[in-house]
Amino acid sequence: MSTYRSASGSSAEDLFIELFSDTFGAEKAGYLYSQYPFSDIYQNSRFADFLIENSGRKVAIEIDDEASHNPKLVSQNKFYDDLLKQNSMIYLGWDVYRWAVRQMQQQPETVKDELRVFLGQHPSFREIEDYLPTQRGKSLDGSKLELKEHQKQALAALEEMRCNFETIALLYHATGTGKTVTAVMDAKRFGKRTLFLAHTVELVDQATKTFRELWPRATVGRYVESMKQGNAFVVCGSIQSVALNLERFKPDDFGYIVVDEAHHASADTYQKVLSYFTPEFTLGLTATPERADDKNILDIFKNTAHKLDIQTAVEIGELVPVRCIRIHTNIDLTKVRFNSVQYNIRDLESKIYVPERNQLIVDTWLQYVKDKRTVIFCASVKHAQEIAGRLHDAGVAAEAVSGEIKASDRREVLARFEKGEIKVLCACDLLNEGWDCPATEVLFMARPTMSKVLYTQQLGRGMRLAPGKESLMVFDFVDNASQYNMPYSMHRLFRLKEYKPGALVLGTKGQKAAEQGLYDKGERPDALIDWPVDALDYELVDIFNWQEEAAGMISQMEFVRRVDVQTETIERYVRDGLLVPDLAVPMSEHRTFKYFKEETLQKYAQQYGWTLIDDSNRKDLFLDMVRQMDMSYSYKPVLLKAVLLFSDDKGRVKLSDIVTYFREFYEARRTAGLVVEKANSIYAKGGYIDAQAQRNILSNPFKRFEDMQMLHHTKTLGVIQVDESVWKKLTREEKQEIERICDEKLEQYYSRLTEK
Predict the structure, then answer these.
(1) What CATH number belongs to 149-308?
(2) Is pLDDT of 470 > 70?
(3) Is the dihedral of CA 609, 614, 620, 623 positive or negative?
(4) 522 or 745, which is more confident?
(5) Range in 5-19, 563-577, 603-617, 734-748 the model is least confident about
(6) Which one, 280, 400, 456, 576, has the greatest CB density within 10 A?
(7) Are strands 281-286 and 256-259 parallel, antiparallel or unpaired?
């Protein structure tokens, strides 16, 4: 996809992020993960153009040109392969939406409207994963298994929860720290028939192997694809296979259920299965960090039994300590445009693809690294090839590797690296996920990125434990940037303001204390003896991160939704300095996103007498508005009656249906010889066309509801929608009350009109 270019020269990916930011706010674009890796049903590596998690569901977004999915314009194999990719996403339980590059260029408002329809007016986005490296499976001997301390603590916590009569829990442990082993040991201790649910065949197979090794006395069966071993004492099944065959099980067949990758559990398929069975205990497993917006997963699993994040994983010895050396370049990124999560590709290329920076990377390796196995993360295939070529010219065994080279050649290069025959891998896109070599001792972060996910993902490739590996050394190539387009680094990622060359960024508390003691005495730690750094040097690092700052604030877009005034009023108040934002983020010369603290919002609401609106009171305010409806014309109750009559289950109604209702309502009065409306109304005059009626509806009755964020108009789709947080909470009785109020208001209005 990155090869597509819009007319402005930015990539299709950049254009989509820009439209997404305009729709939901720039701070929300941080939840968009581009080139998200997954496996299709044949276990081939694939990448979704974008993935985002919304209200507990994964949503894949594909950006295509017109030819990509037209069987007349592409080869049959390519066409079928694209179908397989999409079908595999659906098989994983993802929603899949697609837009064309030309559509985004020529119909941006349509794309933004469709995004609101598909993802909602009030989406609940959340981070998906923390991308810790997957530990390779080891042969387990159940009789001699020595549990780690965090696993013992988790088992004790689960037992205590059951003693308190709790029947469901969540286990959050970082990837690679033995979640499945902990779950198997708890199920074994519980001793009842067990069902293990996962969303891929690979996870089912891994769980089956672990159960058989750790619980040899239990029969363990697979329930996936054509294999249906449903009578085993322990059944390891794919969620899809179990959901499609629920009638083959009784609700009380299992006393213990384990849900792997539990952040999927709010999806319909999982809900179907979990609501069917009646186990004595249910355990969810996840590596996803808990967040303030983690409502869905905790709504299901109630309590977190035990938690282990990336820093804790290092502290307990599950991942290696990490050190850092910062290499300053003379490259200036301050003028590079960005769209909240990534740099403009054309701008970035012009800045970093320069001989001086490339040579600095090579010189750094020759000066510091001394033949340690190294992965250099580059910005593109061209960049990786350039660096590898320069290293090769200097006599270093280096290779560029990317998704563009043949799979067989790629496997050969990686195998040679693991054997130590190749010292340096220059990678642009391949090693972010799905591969790592535990013997890797050094990472070069030579690709500037504003993506926390991508940076962490790359970091994870070197954090695996290996014999003789004291720590991982990370080289951050630090380019000059502004506060707002600053790339990620180790110190920004872990919010460390003080930098000492080669010092521990991640380590156990004992290691950090011991190292600090050496610094205090003016001594260099043993781990740095082989590195030509002066351990006593230090500098202060600017760790300002506008996305983290904005995450706790309210965007101007959200400000409008939180108060009972019009968008134009807020814009004017900001322009005139009557509303002063707490944070202003310049995205480009002509685009600035503004953010307000919650207390600032409340201060201005009190100052200007505005009513604060949120999802908790929006329905009540809507009902109050209906009950107190002022009637300069009859339009508002007529609009509400049309909405109630024609809305679908999501509160959406075609504007054309509303126009038809208005026409029929007023023409019925005219036919019956009743007063139609005030003399200046188009309905009283008659002879109007549908377009005039539509303009009237949108300018008069609708506008007030829109200003209060109760109704929304999706212009390009011709749809009016009751706000989601209102519609889903309205009971049948409340809808009947609205209908009754509308009839009463109309009767009162026409009585007054007739008396005049």
Answers:
(1) 3.40.50.300
(2) yes
(3) positive
(4) 745
(5) 5-19
(6) 400
(7) parallel
**728 contact partners, CB below 8 Å, separation of at least 6:** 651
Q: Nearest 10 degrees: CA dihedral of 556, 558, 559, 565?
A: 110
Parallel/antiparallel/unpaired status of strands 719-722 and 711-714: antiparallel
Which is it for strands 168-173 and 304-308: parallel, antiparallel or unpaired? parallel
Q: Does pLDDT of 202 surpass 90? A: no
CATH T-level topology, domain 322-546: Rossmann fold (3.40.50)
Strand order in the sheet with 652-654: 652-654, 719-722, 711-714
Number of neighbouring beta carbons within 10 Å of residue 502: 24
Q: How many CA atoms lie within 13 A of 276 on its CB side?
A: 20
CATH of domain 552-608: 1.10.1660
What residues contact 605, with CB distance under 8 A and at least 6 apart? 562, 563, 611, 612
- End-to-end CA distance of the chain: give it in Å, rounded: 67
The reply to whether 12-126 and 149-308 are identical in fold is no
Q: How far is CA 598 from the centre of its chain?
A: 23
Token pair in block for residue 447: 């690709």
Q: Model-level pTM?
A: 0.67
Rounded Cα distance between 32 and 51, Å, is: 6
Higher pLDDT: 236 or 303? It is 236
pLDDT score of 572: 94
How many whole angstroms separate alpha carbon 39 and alpha carbon 18?
28
Query: Bridge-partner residues for 259, per DSSP?
Result: 197, 284
SS3 for 254?
Answer: coil
Q: At 101, give phi and psi (nearest 5°).
A: -55, -50
Please, which pLDDT band fits residue 254 given cuts at 50, 70 and 90?
very high
Lowest mean pLDDT: which of 271-280, 287-296, 639-648? 287-296
Domain boundaries along the sequence of the chain: 12-126, 149-308, 322-546, 552-608, 618-755
Q: Is the pLDDT of residue 136 over 70?
A: no
Contact yes or no for 442/375 (Cβ under 8 A)? yes
CATH of 12-126, one of 2.160.10, 2.60.40, 3.40.1350, 3.40.50: 3.40.1350
What is the C-alpha separation between 216 and 202, in angstroms, rounded? 21
Nearest CA to 598 among 555, 535, 656? 555
CA distances from 335 to 343, 352, 481, 544, 575 (A): 10, 13, 8, 18, 25
Identify the burial level of 517 via C-beta atoms within 10 angstroms of its C-beta, where 0-12 means exposed, 13-18 middle and 19 or more buried: exposed
Give the pLDDT score at 3. Answer: 40
- DSSP code at position 633: S
The answer to whether residues 229 and 221 touch, using CB atoms and an 8 Å cutoff, is yes
Q: Where are the alpha helices (H) located in 25-136, listed in sequence order? A: 76-91, 101-106, 108-119
Q: Give yes or no for residue 130 having a pLDDT over 60.
A: no
According to DSSP H, which parts of 170-305 are helical? Answer: 179-190, 201-214, 239-244, 268-276, 295-301
Predicted confidence at residue 137, as pLDDT, reads 38
pLDDT digits (tens, 9 = 90+) for 684-730: 998 999 999 999 999 888 887 887 778 988 888 889 999 888 998 99
Least confident window among 79-83, 228-232, 302-306, 557-561: 302-306
Tokens of 109: 């408002």
The residues near 705 (Cβ < 8 Å, ≥ 6 apart) are 625, 636, 639, 711
Eight-state DSSP code of residue 596? E
On the question of pLDDT at 676 being above 80, the answer is yes
Residue with tokens 């380590």: 507
**Inter-residue contact 58 to 93 (CB < 8 Å):** yes
The C-alpha atoms of residue 541 and residue 564 are separated, in whole angstroms, by 42
Tell me the two tokens of residue 709. Answer: 């964020």
Residues contacting residue 672 through CB under 8 Å, at least 6 positions apart: none
